[in-house]
Amino acid sequence: MNVTPLVDVVLVLLIIFMVLLPERERLARVELPEILNVDPAPKSRTEPFILSLTRQGEMYFEKERLAFDAFTARLRAASRREPHRKLILRADRAVRYAILRCGNTSLPED
Predict the structure, then answer these.
(1) Cβ atoms of residues 59 and 66 within 8 Å
(2) Is 74 in contact with 61 (CB distance < 8 Å)?
(3) Which domains does the chain possess?
(4) Do the beta carbons of residue 66 and residue 30 sit within 8 Å?
(5) Angstrom distance (rounded) from CA 55 to CA 39
(6) Residue 106 has what DSSP assignment?
(7) What angle (nearest 5°) sits at the alpha carbon of residue 71, between those of residues 101 and 94?
(8) What pLDDT does residue 110 have?
(9) Residue 99 near residue 53 (C-beta atoms within 8 A)
(10) Do 75 and 83 meet the contact criterion of CB atoms below 8 Å apart?
(11) The model's pTM
């Protein structure tokens, strides 16, 4: 039995996935700090909103770039539209804590 065609197909698929998978991560490039206390797995299957802060100070809500003063209105609108979804904050380790704290105080409470 000749397995050479099977090996060829597997290698081609491996190369395809190695090229395409990084392209699926279209979120802002963020170097995350290490996790000490991991949250338990979520009970719901609803994907959370993702707010990303880059090293350069750029802010992204999902895949949309936002100005710092416009993100509160965007979060309120998203929260009213889908109140059951949670928010995940992804911040680069080089982002100063004061910036995160300032953004946290203006987040909608509802």
Answers:
(1) yes
(2) yes
(3) 26-105 (3.30.420)
(4) no
(5) 24
(6) T
(7) 45
(8) 46
(9) yes
(10) no
(11) 0.52
